[in-house]
Write a structure and sequence with these properties.
heterodimer; A: F1FO ATP Synthase; B: mainly alpha; 2 domains; 3-stranded antiparallel β-sheet; two-stranded antiparallel ribbon; 9 strands; globular; disordered C terminus
């Protein structure tokens, strides 16, 4: 098999895994945040802020994974 | 009513006209998938079906004898025709070169696609071909380009975004200076629209993070927000390009945040990096490099987040539209017509999603910039609980509503 084919395969699989991880992470974060907002609507602003910060951190890790996938795919 | 309807028809036509080039890129199944290439940077403004407007090329060249020179051209074609530059077609887009004979073979393709394949592969525009326009310019003789300062499509749209922001904001600032909006109610469409956004950024994003230093950093954060928002939205306009889908633009934006963070850093901030308190001494040298890396990864993540989000939306739209042509190529034109409504519906959905993402990413960038700067300029240590409680007690005024009332 052409080695670059494996690189493409790796990039595709990697992108999928990255999406899976980021989805799980942000899902776990957003669900309780919404519950919390429903329980205590007056704390919406604070909850939103801390949710976005944590989501950004998760997304940051996912984006690093994604960049590696892009580098692999464009090799 | 009729006038309004005709405007919509015109807009719809413009949108349709804007598509063919992007579509053409992915229409040929023997080519590499070219959606990536289409959303990438180039040295012309794509105003299909008209000929592209070429942008000036500026090179700083090192000649064979070791001297340096500045080469200025009105356009890529002028550089090729008058400057004797050679356009090297990128190996990654080999499909464009092969495309010619493919077009000859695939008569059915040419029919269904209206000869679009020919347009992207090597149609003459003016005096050079499209392939030459896309190529990488190499100067003649033994000289080589030291610095390519050519004005690219993304740069053009970044300037356009800057111009729009500057125009609107200076006008509004002038109105506030005169007292309109401070002593009276805001007047006019723009002032009403922007006052809401500016107040939201100040009170909900910047103030919770920066506290009494808000006024010092608010101008930067507002500028960043409105520039990113304008650049994002310009990418959704027909014939437009997203400046923020260029990694260089986002890196520059993030590096501003980086510089502000380091310049504003207090003694506490630097101590937490080089000698973190509250942990055993032997761990401190291990933690130091991690903290130093942390300084760098924050702005890098900031840049990549914006870049990836803005690129991804365009790629998804182009891929969905490209599906129509892939289906036509594989299963015949019937399948193409069948897939088209679904593709267009999904593309429209992604388009609206991207509209939302434009706002969210501008918000996230501003929010995280404010957070990073806020973490660096914070005088009080967050883990110092006794200290913090004192502060809360001191700041709690009698009329303040208790947060945990119920």
């Amino acid at each position: 098999m052409d080695p670059s084919a494996l690189a493409f395969l790796g990039a595709g699989l990697g992108a999928g895994l990255v999406a899976l991880g980021a989805g799980l992470g942000i899902g776990k974060l957003a669900g309780p945040a919404m519950e919390a907002t429903a329980r205590q609507p007056e704390a919406t602003g604070d909850i939103r802020t801390s949710m976005i910060i944590a989501a950004a951190l998760i997304e940051g890790v996912a984006l690093f994974g994604l960049v590696i996938c892009i580098i692999l795919a464009t090799k | 009513m009729i006038k309004r309807a005709s405007i919509f028809v015109l807009l719809a036509q413009l949108t349709l006209l804007a598509l063919p080039r992007g579509v053409a890129a992915s229409s040929d199944d023997q080519e590499k998938f070219d959606a990536l290439h289409h959303s990438a940077n180039a040295y012309y403004l794509d105003i299909a079906p008209l000929d592209p407007i070429e942008l000036p090329r500026i090179f700083i060249v090192r000649y064979e004898d070791g001297s340096y020179g500045l080469n200025l051209f009105r356009s890529t074609s002028s550089a090729i025709l008058n400057g004797h530059y050679v356009s090297e077609i990128d190996a990654g887009h080999g499909g464009e070169v092969q495309g010619d004979d493919h077009e000859v073979e695939g008569d059915t393709h040419a029919e269904t696609q209206g000869g679009i394949t020919g347009e992207i592969t090597g149609e003459l525009i003016g005096e050079i071909t499209t392939a030459q326009l896309e190529g990488h310019l190499v100067p003649p003789g033994g000289s080589h380009v030291v610095l390519d300062l050519s004005i690219s499509r993304h740069l053009f749209f970044a300037w356009l975004a800057m111009g729009i922001v500057l125009l609107i904001m200076t006008r509004l600032a002038g109105m506030y200076k005169k007292g309109i909006g401070r002593e009276t109610a805001p007047r006019g469409l723009f002032q009403n629209m922007f006052e809401g956004m500016v107040v939201f950024i100040r009170d909900d994003i910047v103030k919770p993070n920066l506290g009494d230093k808000t006024d010092k950093y608010l101008p930067y954060l507002l500028t960043a927000f409105f520039f990113i928002l304008t650049a994002n939205l310009l990418g959704l306009v027909p014939f437009g390009a997203t400046a923020t889908s260029n990694l260089m633009v986002t890196v520059v934006l993030a590096s501003f945040t980086f510089v502000f963070t380091q310049l504003g850093g207090t003694k506490t901030y630097w101590m937490h990096i080089f000698w973190p308190p509250g942990i055993p001494t032997f761990v401190k040298p291990i933690l130091m490099p991690v903290e130093v890396l942390g300084i760098l990864t924050k702005p890098i993540a900031l840049a990549i987040r914006l870049f990836a989000n803005m690129t991804a939306g365009h790629l998804v739209i182009l891929s969905l539209i490209g599906l129509i042509f892939s289906f036509t190529n594989i299963f015949g034109s019937g399948a193409g017509y069948g897939v088209a409504p679904v593709s267009v519906a999904f593309a429209l959905f992604i388009y609206f999603l991207e509209l939302l993402v434009s706002f969210i990413q501008a918000y996230v960038f501003t929010m995280l910039s404010a957070l990073f700067i806020g973490m660096a300029i914070q005088e009080h240590e967050a883990h110092d609980d006794a200290h913090q409680e004192q502060q809360i007690e001191a700041s709690a005024s009698p009329e303040a509503e208790p947060v945990f009332a119920n």
